[in-house]
Amino acid sequence: MRRSTAIATIVIIAIVLAIITLFVATRETATPAISPNPSPNATANPSASVSSSALASTTVLSYTDSGFSPASVTVAAGGQLTVKNTSSKPMQFNSDPHPVHTDDPELNLGPIAPGASATATLTKKGTFGVHNHLDPTQKATVTIK
Ligand SMILES: [Cu+2]
């Protein structure tokens, strides 16, 4: 009687321990599987909203060795235009018309060294031509609306 009770107790404890171990193991495998999913989502959502708001407020116009890319950009009034010189040579960013640059003086960013960039805040609505003052055949169009 005593012996069988002891054996039964040991068996019950063993079963309980096995169940607890199983639950813990399931939790440990389930927790990492759940947490990587919300954390990329949690980081993806803010970064997506940051990049979309950054796109809304800052437009990038690149100057490459073959000219401006894209050829035309649109900026919300009050937004920013960043001109990046990704070419291998110096350039000078100016509003049309060459050489007086009077259409939209806000666009007169001036000289930009290779690898450098310059940013303007644009408030005057309209569509304006811009060019590389060092090579006025290289043109782009900026629309501010
Ligand atoms: Cu010019």
Write the layout of secondary structure elements.
Elements (H helix, E strand, L loop, with lengths): L1 H33 L3 H20 E7 L2 E3 L2 E4 L4 E6 L5 E5 L14 E3 L4 E5 L4 E7 L2 E10 L1
Parallel strand pairs: 1-4, 3-9
Antiparallel strand pairs: 1-2, 4-7, 5-6, 5-8, 8-9
The structure holds copper (II) ion.
The site of copper (II) ion has 7 residues, from loops.
Q: Your description of this structure?
A:
This protein is of the alpha+beta class. The chain folds into two domains: 51 residues; 87 residues, Cupredoxins -  blue copper proteins (Immunoglobulin-like). It has two helices and nine strands; from the N terminus they run H-H-E-E-E-E-E-E-E-E-E. The strands form two sheets. The chain has a five-stranded mixed beta sheet, with no helix packed on it. The protein has a four-stranded mixed beta sheet with strand order 2-1-4-7. Strand 1 and strand 2 form a beta hairpin. About 19% of the residues have low confidence. The structure holds copper (II) ion. Copper (II) ion (CU) binds next to loops.
How do you describe this structure in short?
The protein has helices spanning 2-34, 38-57; strands at 58-64, 67-69, 72-75, 80-85, 91-95, 110-112, 117-121, 126-132, 135-144. Residues 29-55 have low confidence and may be disordered. It is 37% helix and 34% strand.
